[in-house]
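A common beginner's mistake is to predict each chain separately and then try to dock the pieces by hand. The better habit, illustrated here, is to supply every component at once so that their relative placement is modeled jointly.
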Amino acid sequence: MVEIRTPIKSEVVADLRVGDKISIFGKIYTGRDMALPKLVRLLGDGSAEAMGIELDGSVIFHTAVSPAGVGPTSSNKAEIEGSMPALSAAGVRLHLGKGSLRQDTVEALAKHGSIYVVIPPVTALLEGKTLSRRVVLFGEDGMEAMYELEVAGYPAIVAAAHGESIYR
Amino acid sequence: MSDMAGKRSEYDSVVRKVADALIRASSSFRVDQIEAYRRVIASEENPSARWALETLLENAKAAAERRSPLCDDTGIPHLILEAGQGRSLEGWLFAAMQEGVALGLRELPGRPMAVAGDDRARVDQSEGMFEDPSEVEPAPIMVLPADGDTLRLHVLMQGGGPEIRANTYRVFHKNSAEAVVDEIVSWAVESVTLLGCTPSPLAIGIGRSHFEASSLMLQAMALGDFGKQSPLEKDITDRVNESGIGPLGLGGSHSVLATFLKVGPQRASGVRIVCMRPCCCMEPRVGRAEF
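With all components supplied together, the output reads:
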């Protein structure tokens, strides 16, 4: 199990391989169907940084955040998978979700030095590893808002890195 | 106790039992489900797959201890009521079941995912969500005949991922059950690949209409047992497992944990209506209450 701390340096990502088990520590962002396309639009007009979002070396966890907890949603939904290349270009190093990705997405991530990591849908376990949560953007979207979480030891496994994928 | 007080007490008892059934469904694996996980962990040779299965079982233990959700997608409540010939169903019972669902969702707590607004806004989600988890209304209640004095409620919590991947469609059987099974296996391999939350129990209904096939699929989920698999169910499980998708799609020999199949009456026709739902690795999330 490799311990990964945010912000993640490029060389850390370069050393990870498909099938590596990792444990994630530090501040991470969340975003799913509603938030990620909106975030990509903000990046387009240069206003994300002005809103206090620091994407360089970041992790984005594809999850809702609610009193029920957190857990991965399918990353291959059009709104999420379609946002991943632009977010990788903006500095997101680790996309955390579940489900297979298309090969063109896997290659786009590799081009920008990002990887895709699968986290099991283990909400009860994650509850004990989530130290804090706060809304950072799109609060009007309720559970689909973009949050910053402070996490200690989220378990995950590398599913796509450097153009290779665990999915056939 | 007056009649009115007695009725009130009976009403409150139903509300409590339904809330408890909903919380049990959402926060614990059944005994047959735990045994199924232990069996596949013992035989899984892919280390990534075994890690995923062990983590899922560890999560079930943590959820049961905390009485907290197994998964943050706490699901849409679906209720099946089995009513024996010796029981009468009065309107208050349905009101109490609805209230029990709302209480269970508040106590769990459920995910606040009821969409606000008029028809258009509920479709495009343009007016946001309600903050109260109890605003998530149950689907229409299904009532089935049963024997004797039975009055039993099954509370199912249906996650969103499997709903994206489920399919209800006509299959031309060509006078061969194998042709229908081939189609089911083909759908299952495609959908289980995309599901992400595997190993999946497959729930399947075969009926005469889309409504009937979906109803049979839901009954199969409510009544299926991981330890009791018919030869046909086992055949479907084995064939999908040959795909090698594995737990969380990480590869391995256990993409499907079991198959729950219910075949209803059929129409004299060349067509069967098949509903196939690739349930997620937490499902079936079913809690039962006896009244």
